[in-house]
Design goal:
- By secondary structure, the protein is an alpha/beta fold.
- About 25% of the residues lie in helices and about 20% in strands.
- Strands 2-1-7-6-5-4-3 form a seven-stranded mixed sheet.
- The chain starts with a strand and ends with a helix.
- About 25% of the residues are buried.
């Protein structure tokens, strides 16, 4: 899997462990279904990989205890993860949000705008779409209908903002 953020490829600081007995002192990622056991195991930092069809409220009891929430995208055409990321940010999640799955470089700016910090793509996709292609996609879209979530109201004006001033 290739992990990248707006600066390019990066190493993954989280690992999946054989058993949660191996978790103490490590940055561990496990399924959201195991979040209670994961937190009880006492990893250095806890992270979960969650399906994109969960309700954002399901995460509420854990938001301040998870260093990373990875949202699985089963396909590039299933955009529910974008909505879930935005909802988690609105609930106040301050940790790292990761989009995980076979996304396209053209979806990278949208992922960042919705609140994701990084994208993890399968090796097969990374072979067809190198890092340079992902980074180039960040400069292709200069206007959108929505404000960039990460920049908020202070960010560049959206198309609708420009129309309202005309």
């Amino acid at each position: 899997m290739l992990l990248l953020d707006r600066n390019g490829a990066k190493p993954d600081p989280f690992i999946a462990v054989e058993t949660l007995d191996d978790a103490p002192g490590k940055n561990v990622i496990d399924s959201f279904a195991s979040v209670d056991a994961l937190l009880a195991a006492g990893p250095a930092q806890a992270a979960v990989l969650a399906p994109n069809d969960l309700d954002a409220e399901d995460f509420a009891p854990y938001l301040d205890r998870l260093a990373l929430i990875a949202i699985r995208f089963p396909s590039a055409t299933d955009g529910r993860g974008f909505s879930l990321a935005r909802q988690l940010r609105r609930l106040g999640y301050k940790g790292v949000l990761r989009a995980s799955g076979p996304l396209f470089p053209d979806q990278f700016p949208q992922a960042l705008a919705c609140g994701f910090d990084e994208v993890e793509i399968p090796d097969a996709n990374a072979a067809r779409q190198p890092v340079a292609q992902w980074l180039a996609a960040l400069n292709r879209v200069t206007l959108s209908y929505q404000r960039d979530y990460a920049r908020g109201a202070a960010g560049p004006a959206s198309i609708l903002d420009r129309r309202a001033r005309s």
